[in-house]
Amino acid sequence: MASACPRPIFLSFPKSPSPPLAVPGKHHPSATATASLSLSTRARAAPSSAPSPSPPPSPPADGVGPAAPTRGDVYLGRQLAAAATAGARARAPEEDAERRRRRKEKRKALAKKTPSGVACCYGCGAPLHTGEEGSPGHVEPATYDLKKRHNQLKTVLCGRCKLLSHGHMVTAVGGHGGYPGGKQFVSAEELREKLSYLRHEKALIVKLVDIVDFNGSFLARIRDFAGANPIVLVITKVDLLPRDTDLNCIGDWVVESVVRKKLNVLSVHLTSSKSLVGITGVISEIQQEKKARDVYILGSANVGKSAFISAMLKTMAYKDPVAAAAQKYKPIQSAVPGTTLGPIQIEAFLGGGKLYDTPGVHLHHRQAAVIHADDLPSLAPQSRLKGRCFPANDTDVGLSGNTLFWGGLVRIDVVKALPRTRLTFYGPKKLGINMVPTTEADEFYKREVGVTLTPPTGQERAEGWCGLQGVRELQIKYEELDRPASDIAISGLGWIAVEPLGVPSSDPDSSIEEENGGSGELHLRVRVPKPVEVFVRAPLPVGKAASQWYRYQELTEVEEELRPKWHY
Ligand SMILES: Nc1nc2c(ncn2[C@@H]2O[C@H](COP(=O)(O)OP(=O)(O)OP(=O)(O)O)[C@@H](O)[C@H]2O)c(=O)[nH]1
Ligand SMILES: [Mg+2]
Predict the structure, then answer these.
(1) Would you say the CB of residue 206 lies under 6 angstroms from ligand 1?
(2) pLDDT grade, residue 392 (50/70/90)?
(3) Which of 81, 109, 122, 154 could crosslink 197 through cysteines, CB 3.0-4.6 Å?
(4) What atom of ligand 1 comes closest to residue 273's alpha carbon?
(5) CA 287 → CA 295, 316, 355, distances in Å?
(6) Atom of ligand 1 at shortest distance to CA of 381?
């Protein structure tokens, strides 16, 4: 394309010695095809008032003197340049079509941002209506009319949000897993669609990840939503980590995981919307980085986006009257995924730019996608996690040959382990842990699922339950006996720390574990509902002991410089 431009200039003003230009009526064999194109065009462009066609001048190299380019030459030059550019364009029609397609897509996507003229519930972002009762966005007709008359639809909370704010658990997202949903449900795909415009916006993205379900809620394909916009990573719910956890170890672990996942972020913040840890730091970073852009809070369902916005507004309200006013009509939060159903615009910053809450992205590989809607609250930890160990102490039997059930959602067969290998479960307390010999496990599960092994809760749900069809064989290598080898993270639930030698030996002479120099392999078989993902990851350094066994990443100066920094 670049080579097409100089051509017409060369044709209009040939350098001396003048090429043998064709005189009309005379054929010059040496004249190039391009030259004759130039001449024929020139002839056509000659003023019609000219009495007879005169031979065209041979202009010198420079535009001075009697042979300087005439106005006609200049005009022709321009025309030919334009024609050449058009020609170059015509030579790449696919490129052009692609550009047009992208522009159209962008226009369409941006049009979805604000469904014009539709008032939405300030609690969940669903469009307000007076139709089907019980569906998200529904309001009593009398209330709707009154608020509309007074131009106050912005202050309306829909019926479902009122229930949620009183502690009822009503999800509104169905059809993406074990429960069928219903007429009043919106689908996970619809919610994704609502975020599709975002990659075309100029925005600052604040991506939230739940520390209890770090891998399951990470939303690795965030760029599908965020486009090329800058991302600040916020880790939520750190108040749920076991007592005496050192947040510096957690910060280093998170940064290492983010670097491994090749996600480019500005920085990492460890936060709690409950205790307000880390919130001030995120606010300062947002203020510094937003540069007149809007700020979008993005993440998987139930990671705490709406709660984070509440915490932000509460903290900002001390200094910012705009944030203080926004607190009155803030988004609703609840323990069930699928609370927020549409982007919610919040006037939160004194200096301009809007803050947006967004509907959570529902991922098919989390436990929430397969369990019944009524069982969803049992997946949410209510208070600080406390590891539950198996075996609990020295005197208990070893794990080899045994099976552990985590509620009715996870089964772990310990095929090969050291005599004192310990598994520590971190997750919601409502899920019981039961151990039986592997030989009896099938029978036990069949008998107890829905009864002892819950969720699924109750006989009826157990009958419609998809079962534990997904099987993962895990060979877990360990190099040292005195530190956890790995975590097994169950998407949407929690994690299990695997310690080769978890229980302190009461017998100092016992050295079975040392026989192969302290390294070896454990073999576990993990079963979960089919779409649920199982991740094996570096152990999350939680609890007091972690500050002794955790090793910070050893970095070169350059790596140190390039890595995102963590804050809390
Ligand atoms: N302990 C603790 N709980 C939190 C924190 N943040 C959120 N939660 C709880 O997590 C649950 C989900 O919070 P929401 O703010 O509704 O989550 P969300 O990401 O907006 O969820 P969707 O709108 O469904 O996508 C609620 O029960 C919150 O109380 C936190 O920092 N600590
Ligand atoms: Mg929400």
Answers:
(1) no
(2) confident
(3) 109
(4) 31
(5) 10, 11, 11
(6) 1
Determine, yes or no, domain membership for 465: yes
What is the strand order of the sheet 410-416 is part of? 433-437, 402-406, 410-416, 520-528, 470-478
Q: Ligand 2: distance of its center to the CA of 359 in Å?
A: 6
Judge whether 515 lies within some domain: yes
Which tens digit of pLDDT belongs to each residue from 274-316? Answer: 999 999 999 999 999 999 899 999 999 999 999 999 999 999 9
Under 8 Å between Cβ of 408 and 491: no
Share of the chain above pLDDT 90, in %: 59
CATH number of the domain within which 244 lies: 3.40.50.300
Q: Ligand 1, closest atom to CA 171?
A: 24
Same domain, 285 and 408: no
Indicate which atom in ligand 1 lies nearest the CA of residue 383.
Answer: 1
Q: Are residues 441 and 396 in the same domain?
A: yes
Same domain as 423, residue 514: yes
Q: Is the CB of 342 under 6 A from ligand 1?
A: no
- Checking if the pLDDT of 396 tops 80, the result is no
Residues in Cβ contact with 458 at an 8 Å cutoff, skipping those fewer than 6 apart: 450
Q: Is 455 within the bounds of a domain?
A: yes
Candidate from 8-12, 425-429, 432-436, 532-536 with smallest mean pLDDT: 8-12
Residues 359, 210, single domain; the answer is yes
Q: Is the model's pLDDT at 217 over the cut of 60? A: yes
Domain membership flag for residue 176: no
Q: Is the CB of 307 under 6 A from ligand 1?
A: yes
Tell me which residue has its CA closest to atom 3 in ligand 1: 237
Domain limits for position 278:
191-377
Same domain, yes or no, for 359 and 417?
no
pLDDT mean across residues, the chain: 83
Burial class (CB in 10 A: 0-12, 13-18, 19+), 548: exposed
Residue 257 Cα to ligand 1 middle (Å): 23
How many residues are listed for the chain in this entry?
568
Q: Can you say whether residue 320 is alpha, beta or left, with left for phi > 0 and alpha for psi between -120 and 50 degrees?
A: beta
Q: Residue of the nearest CA to atom 6 in ligand 1?
A: 304
213/349 same-domain check: yes
pLDDT tens track for 31-74: 333 333 333 333 333 333 334 444 444 444 444 444 555 666 66
Rounded to the nearest angstrom, the distance between the alpha carbon of 520 and the centre of ligand 1 is 40
* Tally of domains in the chain: 3
Q: How remote is the CA of residue 273 from the centroid of ligand 1, in Å?
A: 8
pTM value is 0.81
Report whether residue 217 contacts ligand 1, using a CB cutoff of 6 Å: no
